[in-house]
Design goal:
Elements: E1 5-6, H1 7-17, E2 22-25, H2 32-38, E3 45-48, H3 52-66, E4 70-74, H4 78-93, E5 97-103, H5 119-123, E6 129-132, H6 139-151, E7 157-163, H7 164-168, E8 170-171, H8 188-200, E9 204-208, H9 215-228, E10 232-234, E11 249-252, H10 259-267, E12 270-274, E13 297-302, E14 316-319, H11 322-331, H12 342-352, H13 365-375, E15 381-384, H14 390-396, E16 405-406, H15 416-426, E17 432-437, H16 438-444, H17 448-453, E18 458-464, H18 469-478, H19 493-500, E19 503-507, H20 510-521, E20 526-532, H21 544-549
Parallel strand pairs: 2-3, 2-4, 4-5, 5-7, 6-7, 9-10, 9-12, 10-11, 12-13, 13-14, 15-16, 15-17, 17-18, 18-20, 19-20
Antiparallel strand pairs: 1-8
Helix pairs in contact: 1-2, 1-6, 3-4, 3-15, 9-11, 13-20
C-alpha cells in the first residue's frame, strides 16, 4: 500500500505483512493510534494483560512456541521498565521477540518529560537491537528489519520506541512483504571433520537445545544420534530438545542433575554441543565443562559466529542453525561410526526419573509427578518460573515434542502463569500446565484474569511451602538455622483462584492428589490445585535438616 495512512495504521499493516497474528499488551495513551488501527484488524488477536511483566513473558513464550517473534506493546516509562524482564528472558533464552514501546513526542525529548526514558540506551545491553522510529515513512523498513534481526543467527529480542506524535503522522509508505529467513547450513568440510572426530572418540556425548531449536530439528538430530547410539543430554531447561522417549536420551544438565550423567560429562572425550551456549547453569558455573576442557574435544554448533569461541575454546566451530545441521548430520547414513553407549545412558536416566516414595512426606511431589504422567497426554506443555519446586518436574516429568517445556533459562520468577496463557492460546488442542511456587505465583498470578478473559484452558499447580524455597536452601547452607527474610505468609490460593473465576481445590496429602487432578481435568477453563507442602523437603533429593547437618 502507498496511500496516506497514520503511522499507527502503517505499523499494524506491516505487522500483518510479516505474519503477526497476536499481540500482547497493556494499553497506554502513548500508542492509541496503534490500538485504533487494531480495532479494524481482525487478523491480529489482541491479548489484554494485567501487568507489563506478564506482557513480556507472554510474548517471549509465544516466540518460543512459534519460533517467530512474539509481539508486545507497552507504554513508556513504567510500562517499559516492567516489560524489561521479558526482554531479558528472551535474550538469555535465545527466543525471538519484539517489544514496541509508546514513547514521548519527538519535540518533548531530552527534557525528562512525563515517563521519559532513553529506550535505546536502556535496552541496548539486553536486546539484539534497540532503536526508535523517527519517521513514519520508514516504519515498513524498521518492522521488516526487526523481524529479521529477531529471527536470524541467535534469535532474540528487538525493542522499538514509537514517538506518540510519529504514530499520528499521516504519510505515504511502501509496505514490505514477509521476509524469508536466511539458511545457515554446515559445509561438507565441517561435517567430514566432525565425523572423523566422532570416529576417533570412545565416550562422546551431545549437549543440545537453545538457539533456533524446534521440533523438526529434534526429530532429525534424534535420528542421527540413535543411528550411532550417541547419548544426548539437554542443556538447562531444554529438556524437550528431543523426545525423552528416545533410546539415547540421557537427561538434563542444570541444577540437581543425575550424578551418573554428571560423571558421563566428566568422562567424555568428545562433547558435541548443538544450539546451546554452554551457560553457567548448564555447566555448573563453568566447572563441569571448563573453558579449556583439557582431555576433551569440543565441537560447537551455533548460528551466531560471535558465540563460537566467545568463552570456550572450541576445537571445531560450526556456524550453522541447528535445523540445517541436524538435517545434514541425519542425511549422512553411510558414515561408518562405532556404536556408542546411548542405551546405557538412557537406562540410567529412566532409573533417575522414576520417583520413589520418601519417608515422612505428607504430600510427596515426586509421586504427584508420577500421577500426572499417568493422567496427562505425553505432549502436554509444562510451563514454570523459577524456584526449587520446578526441580521435581525437571527430574521426573518425561517431556514430549518441542515445544513442551516453557521455562526461563534466565531463572526469572513469575514466568509460568503468563507462559501458560500464551501456550494455551497458541495451542488450544494441547494440555497446558502452569507450575508455580508460592513466591513465584504471587509475582504474576494476576494474569489468571487474562486467562479467564481470553478463554485460555490451563491447569495451574501452586506448590506452597510458605517460603522463598531456593533462597531458604542457600541460606541454610551458608548460615544454618539463621532464618532471615525468606518466610512467607500466603493467602488461600484456592479461594483466590475461585475469586478469579477458576475451578480450584486444595491438596494436602499425596492420596488426595490423583483424585483432585482427575476432577480438575474434567473441568474446562482455568483449574487450580493448591498443593500445601512441607519446606523441610526442600528439593527432590535433600531436606533442610540434611543441609544444616552438612
Amino acid at each position: 500500500m502507498t496511500q496516506k495512512r497514520t503511522g499507527g495504521r502503517i505499523l499494524v499493516d506491516n505487522l500483518v505483512a510479516q505474519g503477526c497474528d497476536r499481540i500482547f499488551h497493556v494499553p497506554g495513551e502513548s500508542f492509541l493510534a496503534v490500538l485504533d488501527a487494531l480495532h479494524d484488524t481482525p487478523m491480529i488477536d489482541l491479548v489484554t494483560c494485567r501487568q507489563e511483566g506478564g506482557v513480556g513473558f507472554m510474548a517471549c513464550a509465544d516466540g518460543a512456541m512459534t519460533q517467530r517473534p512474539g509481539v508486545a506493546f507497552v507504554t513508556r516509562g513504567p510500562g517499559a521498565t516492567n516489560a524489561s524482564i521479558g526482554v531479558h528472558v528472551a535474550m538469555q533464552d535465545s527466543q525471538p521477540m519484539i517489544l514496541f514501546i509508546g514513547d514521548v513526542d519527538r519535540g518533548m525529548r531530552d527534557r525528562e518529560g512525563f515517563q521519559e526514558v532513553d529506550f535505546p540506551a536502556f535496552f541496548g545491553p539486553i536486546a539484539k537491537w534497540a532503536t526508535r522510529i523517527e519517521d513514519a515513512r520508514r516504519i515498513p523498513e524498521y518492522v521488516a528489519r526487526a523481524w529479521n534481526v529477531a529471527m536470524s543467527g541467535r534469535p532474540g529480542p528487538v525493542v522499538i520506541a514509537l514517538p506518540e506524535d510519529m504514530l499520528c503522522d499521516v504519510v505515504e509508505a511502501v509496505d514490505r512483504p514477509e521476509l524469508a529467513p536466511a539458511l545457515q547450513s554446515p559445509n561438507a568440510y565441517d561435517l567430514d571433520q566432525m565425523f572423523e572426530m566422532l570416529a576417533a572418540a570412545k565416550r562422546p556425548i551431545a549437549i543440545v537445545g537453545g538457539a533456533g531449536w524446534d521440533a523438526e530439528t529434534g526429530q532429525d538430530f534424534a535420528r542421527f544420534a540413535e543411528r550411532i547410539g550417541l547419548p544426548v543430554t539437554g542443556a538447562f531447561r531444554r529438556q524437550d530438545a528431543i523426545l525423552n522417549s528416545s533410546p539415547v536420551w540421557a537427561g538434563n544438565l542444570g541444577y540437581g542433575p543425575n550424578p551418573k550423567l554428571v560423571q558421563r560429562i566428566k568422562d567424555a572425550d568428545l562433547l558435541l554441543v548443538v544450539g546451546a551456549r554452554l551457560g553457567e547453569a548448564t555447566t555448573d558455573g563453568y566447572t563441569l565443562v571448563t573453558l579449556d576442557h583439557p582431555g576433551q574435544t569440543l565441537i560447537h554448533v551455533h548460528p551466531d559466529p560471535n558465540e563460537l569461541n566467545r568463552a570456550y575454546r572450541v576445537d571445531l566451530p560450526i556456524c550453522a542453525r541447528p535445523f540445517e545441521f541436524a538435517v545434514s548430520a541425519a542425511a549422512e547414513e553411510e558414515v561408518d561410526l562405532p556404536a556408542f553407549d546411548g542405551a546405557a545412558a538412557h537406562a540410567e536416566w529412566l532409573d533417575w526419573s522414576t520417583p520413589k516414595p520418601r519417608d515422612g512426606v505428607k504430600l510427596d511431589l515426586g509421586l504427584c509427578v508420577a500421577a500426572m504422567r499417568e493422567r496427562l497426554p505425553a505432549d502436554s506443555i509444562i510451563c514454570n518460573g523459577a524456584g526449587n519446586f520446578s526441580g521435581w518436574w525437571h527430574r521426573y516429568w518425561h517431556y514430549g515434542p518441542q515445544p513442551s517445556q516453557l521455562a526461563p533459562t534466565a531463572g526469572a520468577m513469575g514466568y509460568g502463569v503468563p507462559a501458560a496463557v500464551a501456550a494455551a492460546l497458541r495451542a488450544p488442542e494441547r494440555t497446558v500446565v502452569a507450575l508455580a511456587g508460592d513466591g513465584d505465583f504471587m509475582m504474576n498470578g494476576q494474569e489468571l484474569a487474562t486467562a479467564i478473559q481470553h478463554g485460555a484452558d490451563i491447569l495451574v499447580l501452586i506448590i506452597d511451602n510458605s517460603a522463598y524455597g531456593t533462597i531458604r536452601m542457600h541460606q541454610e547452607r551458608e548460615y544454618p538455622a539463621r532464618l532471615s527474610g525468606t518466610t512467607l505468609h500466603n493467602p488461600d490460593f484456592a479461594a483466590l483462584g475461585r475469586a478469579y473465576g477458576a475451578w480450584a481445590k486444595t491438596v494436602e496429602t499425596t492420596a488426595e492428589f490423583a483424585p483432585a487432578l482427575e476432577r480438575a481435568m474434567a473441568e474446562k477453563g482455568v483449574r487450580l490445585l493448591h498443593l500445601k507442602t512441607d519446606v523441610e523437603f526442600i528439593t527432590a533429593g535433600t531436606t533442610i535438616s540434611a543441609i544444616r547437618n552438612k
